[in-house]
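*** Residues and shapes ***
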Amino acid sequence: MLYSHYEGFCKTAFLIYVKSINQEKILRSIANDFMVAGSLSEVFKAFNNTDKKCKVFKNALPHDEKLHRFAREVDLVKEFDNFLQQIINIPESIVDVESNLKPLVLRKMLYRLGFQYDTFQVHEGLIDQLLNYRNNIAHGAIKNGLEQSDYDSIEKATYIVMEEIKKMIIDALQNKLYLKSTATPP
């Protein structure tokens, strides 16, 4: 139950953060680089797919396959100023728990959202234990539970991480850290 609470809280909190930024209806030109990159995820996906035309990359590709990537790069450069003048819309898919919110997955989400990605390094061992206990219990490998002292340590670390995530998000929203001029690099 503790793991479910942890994963659900983190996912919901980060989705609220993304939704709050999107509701600001700011231009990409004033957003920090992490928000801009996140909002261009579909463009980057299309950029990497040289087999397909799309609304961004409409030009016919040269016959020489070795030039396909370069042709896409030219199209990207041509459209970049337009991208910056569009309202930011970060997709919810940027908040991806990858089926289990392991410490590495949390690091990825923090980084993609422009937060210090190694903030919870000191708690990662206990969060890993939480996930391992949860998986072992769910798959029947552990039937006797765990020691109260072990649970207390894991619970304390889990609640610290959740509380700090809440504080980070509130701080980022209040101080508009998602904007270019106020951003600090992770």
